Amino acid sequence: MERLWGLLQRAQRLSPGPSQTIYKRVEGTQQGPLEEEEEEREEETELPAHFFPMELRGPEPLGSRPARQNPRLWAAAGRRAAPYLVLTALLIFTGAFLLGYVVFRGSCQACGDDVMVVSEDVNHELGPDSHQGTLYWSDLQAMFLRHLGEGRLEDTIRQTSLRERVAGSAGMAALVRDLRAVLLRQKLDHVWMDTHYVGLQFPDPAHPNALHWVDAAGKHGEQLPLEDPDVYCPYSATGNATGELVYAHYGRPEDLQDLRARGVEPKGRLLLVRLGVINFAQKVASAQDFGAQGVLIYPDPADFSQGPHKLSLSSHRAVYGHVHLGTGDPYTPGFPSFNQTQFPPVQSSGLPIIPAQPISADTASLLLRKLEGPVAPQEWQGHLPVSPYRLGPGPGLHLGVNNHRASTPISNIFGCIEGRSEPDHYVVIGAQRDAWGPGAAKSAVGTAILLELVRTFSSMVSNGFRPRRSLLFISWDGGDFGSVGSMEWLEGYLSVLHLKAVVYVSLDNAVLGDDKFHAKTSPLLISLIENILKQVDSPNRSGQTLFEQVVFNNHSWEAEVIRPLPMDSSAYSFTAFAGVPAVEFSFMEDGPVYPFLHTKDDTYENLHRVLRGRLPAVAQAVAQLAGQLLIRLSHDHLLPLDFGRYGDVVLRHIGSLNEFSGDLKARGLTLQWVYSARGDYIRAAEKLRKEIYSSEESDERLTRMYNVRIMRVMRRGESRGRTLGLPTGGSRRNRRGGRTGLGARPSQERPTASESRGWSSTSCPSTCRRPTHRSATSSWVAETTRWVLCWTTCGCCARVAPGPLGRRPRWRGAWASRRAASGASWPCSPGRCRGQPTR
Q: Residue ranges under compositional bias (Polar residues) (predicted)?
């Protein structure tokens, strides 16, 4: 303290000029508040007018304050220097103007006439390192087609299908190393990998799954053959199930209701269902809801035979398929599985609680011959050597499923071409890499197209092309277990991707035939897809474009081509979970679907024979579609996303709800608020479009702002739990319970079928229950209407049923307040609505 006091006194002596600050040493404790002392000090000290307190001038070192200068001398010097300063400023301005004119006179930016619709008049500029000048759409298209090779695709498909690609296997690890080396050789801006440790289910070789007849006393009889002991249903419940056998067609809810109406009760029995129409997970979930003990799934030749000159599935082949009603790792719902991180002991509510097993057509024939009871309806009859098919019940069966869970590392591989103007906005394209069996059509084709696109765009960059936005190429792992790789990556980086990903393009199941073309997509991309189809040649009709091919038999191209995203696709996860518009292309056969998908017969040879030698041409067409789509999305000044399309989509849904106007009026409600919301959206979209048309395209800052607003249309419109144009499974992130994948339950629990809906046994009445994605379109509309009615009026239901992104809609609170003020009664009272989502 003595040392500090000495320094203060020395600083006071050395300070130039008169100082009004007097340092006094005070002994003892000071009394009174500090604020009063400061006020008294300010009153005693009168500061000169030119002095400013230290906190308004910034810190100065002690002794560095300069001596006071004469203001008259400074004024005279300023008057003498003024002419020289003005002359210097004029010279600098003139030189900068001439330099700018010389540099930029030959590179004037051209503006397209239409900023929202794809046209060949829209120009594309190269980066500053280019020496080719301005590139128009035709120039970029020609450059892309020149670098895209056809022969490499077929060779890559053949080589990839010959390699072992089961997730977590040694063959997959070798393939990961090879693919990463391929990307590194392409000299991309960034190449990296993400590894996740996920819970996957595999068959137990020491205790294979088994199927036995059971006599009346419950003793096991003859064992039925399972020709493919390796074929199983991942994520099936393990254990034993015993019951009489019943035939239930495709296992849809309406099939089980029809079965019950015909006097055959599915509860407490094993169900035999056909493959097709809905996926494995939906079949098992429906059976579980109706109280069945287990499910056997078989391929019926009626769904897969392709005529005398086409291939069909062998009768001793069973078909593989997972039964998790959701996506991602079901044992870490909502969390990314990095570095074997420990999470709470919960699992997805989409995991079934009954066992399931795929069987071959031969085994199904043995079972159908034993069935008694009423004859199945004509539309339920198949092509097995059994006539007629009966509903049952039949003799008792015992199903034993002994699959085991293993923590398995899976690796996603990434390659990136960095954008020049908006590098933080990503156009993502991905393909599944893993496969159960050869997987030629399932994942080898997509992997080959992905690698060819990487090579093509890398060559274009070497020749002067640089996209405006970044291109992100991804090879996914764990796709056969429910898009595990893509979903875990989304869960890990959702906060970034939710705002930065522009569009996702999926190459899964791209070539399953060559007769028809389907685009499973979000509404924002429909207009862009239409334009691209008009510029790609048909692979099997010479002289026609793909657009001319699809409208040949149906003038409504949209009805012929556009389909909703399926739940078992990686594209679905991007849209329903992250709110990113997505598209998945598929060439298909005209008639029954490709018969070898998810079997050991999905080989390159069979795929080549099904397409009658046109596999390279069809794969080339998919590569052209995807490549031109990437160019438009990554290089256009303004994103070519048709945000006005949502008005038409909403109107179609409103038309479906009009048939329930009577129920609405009985409750004192109307659809007026829906029409009003649609009108508000249309006006907002038109206002944004006019702002874009009247803006200056060369203004980079303004262009980026409009692009961000266009991207937010998807974030705020589709990431809403039940996405328009998608199956009604909803989003794992935005919906809880009801087998969404996030309404998790403790892993040791085994809830009942009613509880697995996501509601307890004391849940709301049926009018308040949230609709499930397993319903048919018409019944889903009815369920949705009833649920909306109750959710908008019942306070307790609104409490347990959060709105979009976990928030209740604004109109709900205001409307409920007005209804409460008017004294109107609620359709379900709090006393009747005590259900809570299963957590």
A: 749-766
Amino acid at residue number 285: A
For 205-271, give the DSSP string. Answer: TTS--EEEEE-TTS-EEEEPP-S-TT---TTPPPEEEEEEEEE-TT--HHHHHHHHHTT---TTSEE
SS (H, E, C) 130-144: CCCCCEEHHHHHHHH
Return the amino acid letter for 538.
Answer: S
Whole-Å CA distances, 354 to 233, 236, 436: 12, 7, 23
| CA angle in degrees (0–180, nearest 5) for 323-325-328 | 95
**In one letter, which amino acid is 745?**
R
What pTM was computed for the model?
0.73
Q: Which amino acid is at 770?
A: R
Instruction: Give the tokens for residue 72.
Output: 């008259």
User: What's the CA gap between 546 and 625, in Å, rounded?
Assistant: 10
Would you report the helix, strand and coil content of the chain in percent, each value rounded to 5?
Answer: 40, 15, 45
pLDDT at 256: 96
* Other Cβ atoms closer than 10 A to 697: 16
pLDDT in tens, 301-318: 998 765 555 678 888 999
Domains of the chain as residue ranges with CATH: 2-47 (no CATH), 136-200+406-646 (3.40.630.10), 210-402 (3.50.30.30), 647-821 (1.20.930)
Residue given tokens 């595999």 in the structure block: 202
pLDDT in tens, 60-70: 333 444 444 55
Contact predicate 587/538, CB 8 Å: no
- What's the rounded Cα separation, in Å, for the pair 802 and 791? 9
Is the backbone peptide bond immediately before 48 cis, with ω within 30 degrees of 0? no
CB atoms within 10 A of CB 668: 12
Q: What confidence tens digit (pLDDT) does each residue in 567-597 have? A: 888 899 999 888 899 999 999 988 778 899 9
Measured CA to CA in angstroms, residue 361 lies from 204, 272, 469, 679 at distances of 23, 11, 50, 53
User: Does residue 388 have a cis peptide bond before it, meaning omega lies within 30 degrees of 0?
Assistant: yes
DSSP for residue 837 = B
Q: How far apart are the C-alpha atoms of 515 and 239, rounded to whole Å?
A: 44
- Yes or no: say if 736 and 837 are a contact pair by the CB < 8 Å rule: yes
Tell me, what amino acid is at 355?
P
Tokens of 355: 């066992």
Please answer whether residues 457 and 148 qualify as being in contact, where contact means their C-beta atoms are separated by less than 8 angstroms: no
Burial 269-290 (b: 16+ CB within 10 A, else e): bbbbbbbbebbbbbbbbbbbbb
First vs last C-alpha separation in the chain? 63
| Mean pLDDT for all residues in the chain | 76
- For residues 300 and 453, the answer to whether their CB atoms sit within 8 Å is no
In the three-class reduction of DSSP (H, G, I as helix; E, B as strand; rest coil), residue 389 is classed as coil
Q: How far apart are CA 671 and CA 419, in angstroms?
A: 45
Place of tokens 């070519």: 640
Helix (H, G, I), strand (E, B) or coil at 390: strand
User: Torsions phi, psi of 746, nearest 5?
Assistant: -55, 140
State how far Cα 826 lies from the chain centre: 37
The string over 218-232, giving b where at least 16 C-beta atoms fall within 10 Å of a residue's C-beta and e elsewhere, is eeeeeebebebeebb
Rounded to whole angstroms, how far apart are CA atoms 710 and 23? 64
